[in-house]
Amino acid sequence: MRVSTTTMFEQGVFNLQRGQALLIKGQEQLSTGRRVLTPADDPVAAARTLEVSQSKAINEQYARNADSATASIGLEENALARYTGLIQDIKTLAVNAGDGTLTSTDLKTLGTELRGRYAELLGVANSTDSNGLYLFSGYQGTTQPFSENVPGAVVYNGDQGQRLIQIDAGRQVAVSDAGSDVFQRIRTGNSVFETSVDPANIGTGIVTKGVVRDVAAWNAAGNPQNFEVRFFVDSTSVPPSTTYDIVDTVNNLSLTTGAAPAAGPYLRTYQDGATISLARQAPPDTNGTAFDYGIDLSVTGAPANGDSVTVVPSTNEDVFASVYQLIQAVESATPGAKGNTQLANALNSAHNSLDNALDVALTVRASVGARTKEIQTSRSNSDDLGLQFETTLGALQDLDYAKAISDLTFNQVALQAAQKSFVQIQGLSLFNYL
Amino acid sequence: MTSGIFSIGVSGLNAAQAGLLTTSHNIANAATDGFTRQTTIQSNRDPQFTGSGFFGQGVDVTTVRRLYSQFLDTQVLTAQTQASYLDSFVAQAQQIDNLLADPSSGLSPALQSFFSGVQDVAANPASAPSRQSMISLGQALVSRFQAIDTRLSEIREGINTEVAGVVKQINTIASGIASVNRQIVNSGNSEALPANDLMDQRDKLVADLNKLVRANVVTQSDGTYNVFIGTGQSLVVGTQTLTLTSGRSTEDPSNIEIGYLIGGSTVTLPPSSLQGGQLGGLLSFREQTLDPAQNEFGRVATVLAQTFNDQHRLGQDLNGALGGNFFSPPAAVVQSRTNNAGTGVISATLANVGQLTASDYRVTFSGGNYLVTRLSDDTQQSFAALPQTVDGVTLALASGVPANGDSFLIQPTRYAARDVRVTVSDTALVAAAAPVRTAGTLANGGTGKISAGIVSSIANLPLPGAVTLTYAQSTNQFTVTGAAPAAGPFTYTNGSAIAFNGLSVTVTGTPADGDTFTIANNTAGVADNRNALLLAQLQTVQTVANGSANYQSAYSQLVSNVGNDTREVKVQSTAQDALVQQTRAAQQSFSGVNLDEEAANLIRFQQAYQASGKVLQIASTLFDTLLQLGQ
Predict the structure, then answer these.
(1) B597 interaction partners in chain A (CB closer than 8 Å)
(2) How many helices (H) and strands (E) does chain A have?
(3) What span, in angstroms and rounded, lies between the C-alpha atoms of A386 and A394?
């Protein structure tokens, strides 16, 4: 084949340029460590790289969110721990106050200590985080959640919002609880009904918090839910006999007779500590209509004639009110049997309330604990996932150094050969011999 | 007899000299671009008939011919114009390719940082530094949008400049060809005695033209070339040329378009008629890669700004007011063709950004109908009247009356990336909170709990007062008081939504008879992050292209499209370069100068010259012999 001199130059230069382009590319890959230098090198990998790096960035963000959630929820857990500790302290003080040998001076001292705890309680409820935001005011971070304008009457100024933090694509976890749910939404009595003695009682009857036998019967329509147990002491008999009646105070009917309440003696006989059931017991009841309101209570001690015990449905009461009532009961206790009975009944009620408050606090703490655990799990998942994304990214864009270096060396050899042969071939000319 | 030898010797000398002349011409032009090697054609003279037979009379140089093959040359031209086309396409495409996916300068890092900023606000809604950082990162994001868009616009302007330059070059070459045509006619060129070097010059001009735009030639009987470019537009006819013009498009003034100057008026040439070569590459790149890329990029900006704004407006800022727009609201651009005859002005509004395509649209008023053409695939819809919504864009006649044949260019997303701004500068105006809050009344006896509530419309906000949901056990219903407009009652099902007036809440658990729940305006909610969480979630919601992509994946798609385009033309270009090499080698192997061959020819003709000289010397000796005989 005839070859023109121009072709020899052009082909030679074309090959040299191609070899140089390969070398430059290899050099660029080696110096950046990236296999894909522009999307054109591998369009699919380039697009995947962008998407995976977004997933990686989001995952890192979730990890940061989880860290911030851990910090926030840690503060709440701390406050709740202090709160449960305080309730237990107050309960201990209430037990101490029940020691019948205490003088009124001792009780005053206890009262002072309780006031200290009360103030501490308010402090915990108004805890703030490192930015000065209140922990328990819902969405209203800068509003002090609990304020006491009148002694004993604490008002909640926050709302019921819960702050959530995104810790995973499909999961937002709450990092706060509203103060109303922690300190306020606490049931009185035994959570279903509440018993109390008439302050005017003169006997030594102490009422228990009662038990629910049948919650459906209590909740059934037609249950008036407000009752009074009235005692009658016949002092003429020897020994004196005590009888009681149960009155539906809504409809003003005696449950035992089914008629309007009358004066004693009553049909049922009182025994110290025996069950007083809000269900028909015939005999001795003469009520023609069967009834069962599903609850029982009992009274210990010796009620006096005309003493009464009331039963009302449970309501919500805040922990501050419960503690304040306890303080007042302790501070205003009077010596003597009547005073002791009143104090004992008040302490019983306080114990009930504090137990309920503790229940609520522990429930919230349990939920906080569960959330902390979840955040930690999610955090470590994020780490694992981050590693996976890193691996995927590496596979998509990173350079295989061994291959790249070997390619570079090969291309170098090829270019050297092309250069050398080009020069040698160009040196061959007939003109050299003319 | 002797005179015969003399004359034969002289003819040999002449022929050898002619051979030496042509060989030196070849050697001298060995490196001349477009040169075709020449050779002398010599033939033996007619013999003289004598009684002893036919005696040769020497040699004649009939002509000088160039070794030119129309077939091989056309092959080179065809391969070359495609190679130039691909070269200029690759050169442009590589600019976008490098721009988009650079790990530090692309859109992705800015997009990710911005949403990290939103997440930070969600984690610390009351923190002014977090809010400031979200605003600053938003500004960084829009400036990244703008920077990339500016670069794309610069590429577009670069193409405009290059197109105008190429058009000038084409005109220059065209007049060059016409002038060589004239020289050839005047030179006495004929089939037998061709004007080789003039023809080489002209072929070189055609080859140059062919690199700018595909050129075809037809040889006329007088030896002149008629030149056609692109898909057959005549450029040179004999010694006449037609003039190409470049100027701003009447439809889209951001583009330069090409026209013919005929009788003082310009006739626009559609880009599809100017294929091949650098010009074809530029025009194709603009239409196939740049326009879709800039539109798709703008679409990411449009959807991001619109969806983010929509959610931001459902929130509440630190001042307790409903959120405003976080970004400037995106808008479609309408350009009336500059030579429209009517007064009609068409408006385009974005009705549903999720349905937007990356195409431009042309609305043509024709025969009383509005013909809407989607330019990416030329699908057409005809409407008797506006307004109409096409692909999420509502077209309406804003004012005036269009004349028949008027046309309007609708660019829903082209300028969105250029125009997007952050409109919030006060940290308090970041709407991280939700405008309402819910509460279960403290005295409730049941275990019912109300959810935080979702706001889907602010039409009925702020609430005139607290809205109370009261549960009645007898009917198992919630009655709603305080809502305006009035709503309910709603039958209670555990966990199912109660929705009214753009609000939606869920009650779970067992509410007791008479339990109440309230929905109220959110006040002092500085630590409320509900809307910030929803804003942050937008990052992964499929909002683009009919819910098939999120912001990042829409951008990744763009990168992948550009990458694919670039890769494709690069691969083609490499293959085409090899093809050019091959065809050129074939053409050169026939027409090119080989110096070794010319050296051999030098020796050959030199020896022929010497031999003819020897013939003369011998003839002279013979003559001397005769003279001596006479002494």
Answers:
(1) 2
(2) 8, 16
(3) 12
Nearest in space to B23 (alpha carbons), one of B592, B624, B597, B625: B597
Give SS3 for B105: coil
Contact A63, A382 (CB under 8 A): yes
Angle at B339 between CA B337 and CA B341, to 5 degrees: 105
Reference A264, options A239, A281, A287, A247; nearest CA is A247
DSSP string covering B18-63: HHHHHHHHHHHTTT-TT---EEEEEEEPPPEEETTEEE---EEEEE
The CA distance from A146 to A350, in Å, is 21
> Which chain A residues are Cβ-neighbours of B600 within 8 angstroms?
430
- Mapped onto helix, strand or coil, the DSSP state of residue B103 is coil
Using CB atoms within 10 Å of the CB of residue A186, give its burial: 0 to 12 exposed, 13 to 18 middle, 19+ buried.
buried
Question: If chain A, 434 residues long, is cut into consecutive pieces of 10 residues, what is the mean pLDDT of each piece?
Answer: 87 90 92 87 87 90 91 92 94 87 85 92 91 89 90 89 88 90 89 87 87 87 87 84 89 86 84 87 80 89 88 89 91 82 88 91 93 92 92 89 93 93 88 85
Q: Write the residue in B97, B108, B119 that is nearest to A61 by C-beta.
A: B119
CA distance A256 to A244: 9
Token pair belonging to A181: 């749910």
Q: Note whether B123 contacts A: Cβ–Cβ < 8 A.
A: yes
Beta bridge partners of B268: B259
How does pLDDT run across A69-79, given as a tens digit for each residue? 999 899 999 99
B530 CB near a chain A CB, below 8 Å? yes
Whole-angstrom Cα Rg for chain B: 41
Q: Which amino acid belongs to residue B116?
A: S
Chain A CA closest to residue B569: A40
- As a whole number of angstroms, the distance between CA B310 and CA A103 comes to 70
CA distance B312 to B362: 33
SS3 content of chain A, % helix, strand, coil (to 5): 50, 15, 30
Give the length of chain B.
631
> What's the ipTM?
0.82
Q: Kindly report the backbone phi and psi dihedral angles of residue B386, in degrees, each rounded to the nearest multiple of 5, phi listed first.
A: -105, 165
**Distance between CA A306 and CA A232 in Å, rounded?**
6
Q: B493 by DSSP, 3-state: which?
A: coil
Separation between Cα atoms, residue A286 and residue A256, nearest integer Å: 6
Helices (H), B324-468: 416-419
CA distance B76 to chain A (A): 13
- Is residue A7 within 8 Å of residue B592, measured between CB atoms? yes
DSSP string of A162-189, one letter each residue: --EEEEETTEEEE----HIIIII-EE-T
CB spacing of B112 vs A53 below 8 angstroms? yes
Is residue B128 within 8 angstroms of chain A, CB to CB? no
Which residues of chain A have a CB within 8 Å of the CB of B530? Answer: 161, 164
C-alpha span between B415 and B420 (Å, rounded)? 9
Between vectors from CA B413 to CA B408 and to CA B415, what angle results, nearest 5°? 90
Task: Report the DSSP pairing between strands B215-219 and B225-229.
Answer: antiparallel
* Furthest-apart CA atoms within chain A: distance in Å: 162
Q: State which residue of chain A sits closest to B453, comparing Cα positions.
A: A161
Distance of CA B84 to the CA centre of its chain: 16
pLDDT per residue over B309-338, tens digit each? 999 999 999 998 999 999 999 999 999 998
d(CA A326, CA A344): 11
Q: How far is A375 from chain B (nearest CA, A)?
A: 14
Tokens representing A378 are: 């999610």
Chain A contact for B525 (CB, 8 A cutoff): yes
> Residue A217's beta-bridge partner residues?
none
Residue of B109, B3, B151, B190 lying closest to B615 (CA atoms): B3
Distance CA(B107)–CA(B151), nearest Å, equals 13
Identify residue A277 by its one-letter amino acid code: S
